[in-house]
Amino acid sequence: MSSNPNAADPLQVVCLCADWCNNCRAYQPLFESLQSQFNGAVRFAWIDIEDESEVLGEVDVENFPTLLVLRAQHPLFLGPVTPQLGVLVQLVQTALDGRMQALTGSTECALAVRVHHHLSQLQA
Hints:
The chain is of the alpha+beta class. Helices cover 40% and strands 22% of the residues. The protein has a four-stranded mixed beta sheet with strand order 2-1-3-4, sandwiched between helices.
């Protein structure tokens, strides 16, 4: 897999959370509100790590919310963030501006492939 994502591929921002997590439940409306702010330039998705654990594979999410930012099957960011709208906006804008290099770790790349495939199936 090439480590250079094509800027023409849509940016996807995926929140990896759990339904039982109070932080996640409070963060979800903020997260979903950005879909209209970025007017189709970004696709936002929510994955419950317990209901859809097969998507995670060997990745162990320990802190919530954890975000995965990817273009096509290329991971750009994977990690926990503070559940604040401003942090998410800044992260998304940085990715849109092309100021994030693709991650090259095998775990991150494998997760990105699984998540991309999962989201593609949901959209079909």
